[in-house]
């Protein structure tokens, strides 16, 4: 692994030297954090120039630092892999812990706090995650500015991101989707975005792709029940579920048009065609390491999707974390409503990983225990219910 790409900005050299020294002088099990005062997560549009620079530098340093949890991954790519592992489990079992079930907000809150801790570890700075308010054009403009995530993809480069700190020559994608319906659609080792682009057909969002509105968010916040049986998708009363609404399903089957969190992924990534001499279906396959299986399928060779679309590896785009920080902020707002503070269903009786005191996969695996900051904040949905206990609040 090349830990210091030649294209990394010169201003990071000093930070990287500190990171190397830090790694050499501390074991993987003995990582210190900056001061543990309550962190305040801000709207991206309210960040100062220095806060933007510190946040970006910390991400780039994370990408260039070995993971304390793996001998083969960078620290940044470790987060992509954890998300991929959760999706792998879903693909070969009847349930998964990270998506389409009650633990969706708690699982991603755990991922975000680990990520925030990691940024602070490698930078030595009091970094707090900024959030992308989908309803605020000024927030969207700030998130996708050259100072933060960079902008839309270039149509002359198959919509590769060509500006900002995560541009094509400065940010490498190392982990690729194992979802067979996406493998051939996102082959690039760089970030791809095509804001709001859509295609007709059963496998692509033929519905209009637009960002959620204030009314959409208020509609979710007005739902009093956290979640309802059968705790996922299928026949049930999920239209009465805050979690189901927040995740962004508009139908009980979880097929068809999407909203909220789900459509945010669609909007950033985009679905689009590229010119090819002959349009044909290409055979694809991938190995699912969770259940040691070969997954096969076919995809059209003229269709592409952006980096935020394949669910398993969507954290390859650093915009993922600002997007999910907003998801977490909406849950935080719902929790501020009297009576909602520690509300969570199911307490028991659901598949392992959904219940209030179940340890969440893959954070609970032995190879991740007692390393880095894994156990600092707990491993269950219950341990994720209070942001104050986790050491952060939101500036609303």
UniProtKB/TrEMBL annotation:
Tyrosinase copper-binding domain residues: 99-116, 317-328
Pfam families, per the entry: Tyrosinase
Keyword Metal-binding among UniProt keywords: yes
Keyword terms of this UniProt record: Copper, Metal-binding
MF-aspect GO terms: metal ion binding; oxidoreductase activity
Origin: domain of life: Bacteria
Presence of the UniProt keyword Metal-binding in the record: yes
Annotated family: Belongs to the tyrosinase family.
Name of this chain's protein: Tyrosinase copper-binding domain-containing protein
Organism: Flavilitoribacter nigricans (strain ATCC 23147 / DSM 23189 / NBRC 102662 / NCIMB 1420 / SS-2)
